[in-house]
Amino acid sequence: MFEQCTIRGVRFVPARFLAPMAGYTHSAFRRLLGELGGCGALWTEMLAARQVIAENFRESPWVKRRPSDGFTFHQLMVRAGDPLDRVLGVLADQGVEAVDLNLACDAFSIRACEAGSGLFEDLAALARVARESRRHWPGLLTAKVRLGRQCPDWEYRFAERLRVLEDAGFDALIVHPRFFEDKFRRRARLELLPWVATQTRLPLIANGDLTGVESVAAHLPPLESACGIMIGRMAIACPWLFARWDAAPREIDHAGVWGRLCDYVAEDFPAAAALRRVQLFTKYFAANFAFGHRFRVEIANAPNLEQARERAHEFFARSPRLLAHPMVAGL
Asked: Which residue of 119, 131, 190, 325 is 20 to 30 Å from 89, comparing CA positions?
């Protein structure tokens, strides 16, 4: 399933991708994922466009890349009025392969600066940003979208915005079929993907409530409208997920995986930020265990990274029982 796809001449094998997740898909996690087998392509966490200009691409954990990362999309939080000529020029100078605009985030802080879902709702501003992005970025250009606000004419409004992106020359769309108000509380409406495909000529990458082989197979009829699929939370819980997709199950050293992530985060982030990234990772990684909530709480309450390591060592020393199917819904 989704063995390959081609978007504007770029061939992705497999067509199974790591979703951008703020606080999670930083350089340390991308390094871990690559060492565990990688995936067809991955997305950085959302980057403030203006901040990109000042980033050190050799040291910043948000934009730093390693050879093991593979094909990487840099996702931008863009506002109307951002100096996209400079931002995209910096990315081009650094050898960035592809750019994605986040038009889906509905966090209050993002909407407050008229980015994410705020930009998606402002049709005139969206059109300006879309045209300017394409003018200054000759490479692969995508956008991540949700369905918009849940209102009586949402279908018309959504299709209107897809036409703006298509007319501007975008290459593909990542579609997370939830409304902005849904957050992650309601299920993704994957059954709407065939309809979305009728509203645009652009290739679609499906995102939302996809957790692996079984969930993709369960939703295969509507997913056939997409050229690829994107997985977020379950890929954080099981960074080996993509590598094991078509392979026979093999034993995973969970303690070793957690420890490597901890080491890589400590290498890339200052101490306080490193602890927070480890705590965020553990929130999902703990879903692998029958009593993982205790592990999650122990790490969440650790005062520093050294204490987090000690508590993790004690937890794994107890040989915690693994769950056959980790549950990440609601986390």
From this structure: 119
Q: How far apart are CA 313 and CA 258, in angstroms?
A: 10
Distance, CA of 154 to CA of 241 (rounded, Å): 35
Distance CA 302, CA 293 (A): 14
Closest CA to 193 of 221, 167, 165: 221
Round the CA-based radius of gyration of the chain to a whole number and report it. Answer: 19
Query: What is d(CA 293, CA 8) in angstroms, rounded to the nearest whole number?
Result: 44
Judge if pTM exceeds 0.70. Answer: yes
Q: What contacts 291, CB < 8 A, 6 or more positions away?
A: 320, 321
Q: Which amino acid is at 256?
A: G
CA geometry: angle 60, 70, 89, nearest 5 deg: 55
How many residues are there in the chain? 331
Rounded Cα distance, 119 and 117, in Å: 5
Rounded distance between C-alpha atoms, residue 188 and residue 88, angstroms: 32
pLDDT in tens, 66-97: 989 999 999 999 999 999 999 999 999 999 99
Helix (H, G, I), strand (E, B) or coil at 283: helix
